[in-house]
Amino acid sequence: MTMEQDTLLGLLSATAAGDKQAFANLYKQTSGQLFAVSLKMLGRRELAEEALQEAYVKIWHNATEYQHGKGLVLTWMISIVRYRALDMLRYHKVRKEDQFEDGQEAMFEDPMSGEGADEGPDITKTKLDNCMGELEPQQKQAIHLAYYNGLTHHEVVGHLDLPLGTVKSWIRRGLQQLQRCLAL
Amino acid sequence: MNYRDPEIRDALAAEYVLGTLRGQARRRFQTLMMQIPSLRESTWLWEQHLHGMNERLTPVEPDQAVWQHISQRLGFTVANADIDTRVATDIADVQTSAPSTSPQSNVVSLSSFKTRLWQGAASFATAAALILAVVLVKQQSIDLPVAQQMAVVQGAESQALWLIEVTERSIEVRSTSNFTPLANKDYELWMIAKGVENPISLGLLPKSGQLSLPKNSQFDEVDIVALAVSLEPLNGSPNGLPTEVLYTAELAIL
Predict the structure, then answer these.
(1) Cβ separation A78–B51 shorter than 8 A
(2) Pfam families of this UniProt entry (chain B) (predicted)?
């Protein structure tokens, strides 16, 4: 993790100084991860690629604004692509609702449910995993749906078939519990 | 709501990062983040908490075209200093050679530059159609000075960003609604002339609406290969050379 952070930090500082080759390298090392994030949220490849493209343009322009307080370089970059994807979800709201009607549930699969190929037996559990594991299953599911798929409270309601108030308070309390656990 | 209350602050920041804070609430939060440092810090902390969830996602390789679009958008494929000679030689090249795809790492290679020009040539048809449309409209308004030359500056997705008409005395520029300017930047127009070492500034482009730029005295004397638009600090290039070339456009004689 620190090795990755050191490498990416080196590339990002060079990018901030206008080094195009370093930026190309940064793209090469991180685009797969960032694309997975935007694809998960937007569901459609062309939209996900648009979000990715705009995120990297922003990363190039804002490279000087990264600072340690914002977390790891990859965290900072993931934030940028996520916020861009969230903006796009607003504009492409229709698509999301269409998919609900079509019952395309595949995109809502839970990457931490343990059935997918994402979780190998060799992956050591992080603190976040442990803390997420302490949540009620439905609380965890609501948070996952919102986070990975960019669903609104209303959309989570549609997916879990529970009253809006319940979903809202589950998410809120889930996050509070998560914060207490992570702070320990 | 008291945003300085740690509990409220944390709850809002968490939902902002999670993505459930939407619409007006989200925009209001973004504004508040600019004003309240503790809110910003709380947000960064939540980004660190939650973005670890992405480690569970298997990386997916995006299409190669994404990188090409990024480097085009950022103007990497056009070098600033020797832009004139490259444009001159490569425009000739590109008419005979097939488009080449550049490897990801080869950011400023000549081949990717050619790809860009090729794509430019491909989208020229769109530009030509737009020019025709504008010319047809123009013919109905006799009072205005007659445009002699014209160019359409297009963005990465071939969307028209500025319409440029050159009349006998001035350069008339209109920005289109496709164009979203950066508030802290200006956009400068340049001409790239054959045999002239550096691009020559024609002035700052309007960020919205219409603007009449004085016609540079050299404009009719040189052989213009292309126009270029660069991204500059406010008030234009600090050193008389383009800082970051964003787009190039061909000038068509009417």
Answers:
(1) yes
(2) RskA_C
Which of B18, B48, B66 is nearest residue A143 as measured by Cβ atoms?
B18
ipTM of the complex: 0.82
First to last CA, chain B: 61
Q: Where are the domains of chain A?
A: 1-91, 93-184
> Which residues on adjacent β-strands are paired with residue B210?
B174
The CATH topology of domain A1-91 is Rna Polymerase Sigma Factor; Chain: A (1.10.1740)
Domain boundary assignment for chain B = 6-56, 80-253
Mutate to test the interface with A, among B26, B49, B67 (most CBs of A within 10 A): B49
CA distance B170 to B176: 19
The CATH number of the domain covering residues in A93-184: 1.10.10.10
Residues of A in contact with B156 (CB under 8 A): 53
Residues A82-129: pLDDT tens digits? 999 998 887 766 344 444 433 333 344 444 443 333 444 444 568 888
* DSSP-assigned letters across all residues of A131-181: HHHTS-HHHHHHHHHHHHH---HHHHHHHHT--HHHHHHHHHHHHHHHHHH
Question: Does residue B174 have a pLDDT over 80?
Answer: yes
In tens, the pLDDT along B31-88 reads: 998 888 899 999 999 999 999 888 788 999 999 999 999 999 998 875 443 333 344 4
> Which of B16, B26, B34, B60 is most worth mutating to test chain A (most A CB atoms within 10 A of its CB)?
B60
The whole-chain average pLDDT of chain B stands at 77
What is the distance, to the nearest Å, from the Cα of residue A144 to the centroid of all Cα atoms in its chain?
10
Could you read off the pLDDT of A7-56 as tens digits, one per residue? 999 999 999 999 999 999 999 999 999 999 999 999 999 999 999 999 99
Count of C-beta atoms within a 10 Å radius of residue A184: 6
Residue B103 has pLDDT above 70, yes or no: no
| Token pair in block for residue B111 | 């081949």
Chain A 109-148, residues with CB within 8 Å of chain B CB atoms: 111-112, 117-119, 126, 128, 132, 143-144, 146-148
